[in-house]
From TrEMBL:
Record-annotated membrane-spanning stretches: 47-67
Source organism, top-level taxon: Bacteria
Keywords, comma-separated and alphabetical: Coiled coil, Membrane, Transmembrane, Transmembrane helix
Protein name: Septum formation initiator family protein
Disordered: annotated span: 1-31, 167-196
Statement: the UniProt record of this protein carries the keyword Coiled coil: yes
Composition-biased stretches (Basic and acidic residues): 17-29
Coiled-coil residues: 73-107
Organism for this UniProt entry: Corynebacterium suicordis DSM 45110
InterPro entries found in the cross-reference section: FtsL/DivIC
Keyword Transmembrane recorded: yes
């Protein structure tokens, strides 16, 4: 029996070249991963210093060129966040001012503000204001949470009666004391007669 290149002879008929080629391709395909793995695992024994220097230079250049745009990007993001917060705050202020403006469109609210802020009254009303020199704005009774060790005060009706029945000593002793405590305008002095 004669054998052809790498294949046994079957009944004396030589094998077709296409079949032999397919078998070789199959063997190469099965051996390809082993060859690739050997090439991949085997590193060059010695690295050229020039290649190493060029690779380092490329990495440094890329780092420098990317660093500035990245820094600008993060700064702009922070600036946008600040501006968004400022816009939200201004929108809240705008809404508050719009609501206040809408309240002033109501006549009842305007009348109430005129009464409380300016002390104005409607035509036909009488205004009364009780002013006592014994009441001070910093009295402990007027501040909530003030010291509780102050002596007991008499009832309100007793205080009211005492305020109108007991005269003020300063007003009794000095007739020049203004009883009403209202501001007055000084009268201008009469012009002096010319001397002859």
């Amino acid at each position: 029996m004669t054998e052809t290149k790498g294949a046994p002879n079957r009944g004396g008929i030589p094998r077709a070249r296409s079949v032999e080629r397919q078998e070789r391709l199959r063997e190469r395909a099965q051996a390809a991963p082993k060859r690739a793995a050997r090439r991949f695992v085997q590193l060059p024994q010695q690295i050229n210093p020039m290649v190493l220097a060029v690779a380092a230079a490329v990495v440094i250049i890329l780092g420098v060129t990317i660093a500035q745009p990245l820094r600008n990007y993060f700064e702009q993001r922070a600036e946008l966040a600040e501006l968004d917060a400022k816009i939200a705050q201004q929108e809240q202020e705008r809404d508050r001012l719009t609501a206040e403006l809408n309240r002033y469109q109501n006549d009842d609210y305007v009348r109430e503000q005129a009464r409380t802020r300016l002390g104005l009254i409607e035509p036909g009303e009488s205004a009364f204001r009780i002013i006592s020199p014994n009441i001070s704005a910093t009295a402990p009774e007027s501040t909530p949470g003030a010291d509780e060790t102050t002596p007991e005060r008499s009832a309100w009706y007793q205080q009211l009666w005492d305020s109108i029945s007991i005269p003020d000593e300063a007003a009794l002793g000095d007739p020049s004391v203004d009883q009403h405590h209202l501001p007055t305008v000084e009268e201008p002095a009469a012009p002096a007669a010319p001397a002859q």
